[in-house]
Amino acid sequence: MLRIVYTAILFVVLAAHCKASDINALLEATKQNINQYYVLSESIPNITTSLDNTELQHALANATSEQEIGNILTAHLEGFDKHFTVQPIPTANTKEKATFPKEPWFTKLDRKNAGLRHVEIKQGNIGYIEFWGFANLNNNTQQKFNNVMQLLSDVDGLIIDLRENGGGSGEMVSWLISYFVKGRVHTNSFYTRYTDVSNDFYTEKNIDGGKLESVPLYILVGQNTFSAAEEFAYNLKHMGRATIIGEPSKGGANPWRWFPLTDNMRIGIPATRAINPITQTNWEGKGVIPNVEVNEQDALEKAYEISLKTVLENTESAYQKQDIENALSELRLDK
């Protein structure tokens, strides 16, 4: 009996030792990949040093699954850059529901109407559009947004609600901005450190659907506004084309890509950084700062009020003034 007990103890010790070795190998691979690919090279020493933290290593050693290991490392690295992600590599045998509860972002956007959720023309002829992601730019998504912009083409003000928009395609960002500016405009550049290449993005000079290049534009942002949605708001803010209303956004400006860590794990590393042609910087770690800061729950009401007052100040039509006054009266009654 004593021999059996000692054998069991030895087995546990050896298993723990192997697990510690696996964790060390994972952390070393994480450091190597960050050293090679992370775009903000000045931040690399702090990140890699932080991976030697004994509390982090203890948490990883006590994890009961690869998914939990990925979650712990992701939470740690997000403290440096919110685009970092660590997770198991999907396989043909992966039980998607159990291991990957979140549907892939672009798959979800394709399945759910390119992220479009609410389109309305409010009293006073103020347009409102809300969508939760920037889908891949293709014929299908272009047609959906062409239809929306055509519907909104005669509004006197437009509110774009990005408070719950988690981002997506940078190409879609520049294409959508095309509706709100004249001609071909340089919207952003993306620099990739490990290739030392910079790619410039421009609006489309000619675009189908309703052009809204002179309509007063208001963009709602909040704590869940992220990535490509932040780029959209940031670019239009610094072009002087839109008024941003709400709370500072999440602060993720560095697009990422996957790199393998081990046979079973992979890491999403922000390998590219956005460089706005006007500011020569971006919103990383700071978020998009609104022109009008209000609690994000009140941002729509505030934007609607501002847009109505802007139209009222600029119209000479007695009929339109009456419409606006009626809308403002209802807005005051609702408060």
Provide a quick synopsis of the model.
This protein has 335 residues and is of the alpha/beta class. It has helices at residues 2-37, 44-50, 54-61, 66-77, 96-99, 105-111, 139-151, 170-177, 228-238, 299-314, 318-334; strands spanning 85-88, 116-122, 126-131, 157-161, 186-192, 197-202, 217-221, 243-246, 256-260, 265-270, 272-275, 292-293.
Explain this structure to me?
The protein has helices spanning 2-37, 44-50, 54-61, 66-77, 96-99, 105-111, 139-151, 170-177, 228-238, 299-314, 318-334; strands spanning 85-88, 116-122, 126-131, 157-161, 186-192, 197-202, 217-221, 243-246, 256-260, 265-270, 272-275, 292-293. It is of the alpha/beta class and 335 residues long. The protein contains 11 helices and 12 strands. The model is unreliable at 1-18 (pLDDT under 50). The relative contact order is 0.13. The strands form 3 sheets. The protein has a 6-stranded mixed sheet with strand order 2-3-4-7-8-12, with helices on both faces. Strands 1-10-9 form a 3-stranded antiparallel sheet. The chain is 41% helix and 18% strand. It starts with a helix and ends with a helix. It folds into 2 domains: 2-88; 105-297, 2-enoyl-CoA Hydratase, Chain A, domain 1. A hairpin with a 4-residue loop joins strand 9 and strand 10 (265-270). The radius of gyration is 24 Å and the shape is elongated.
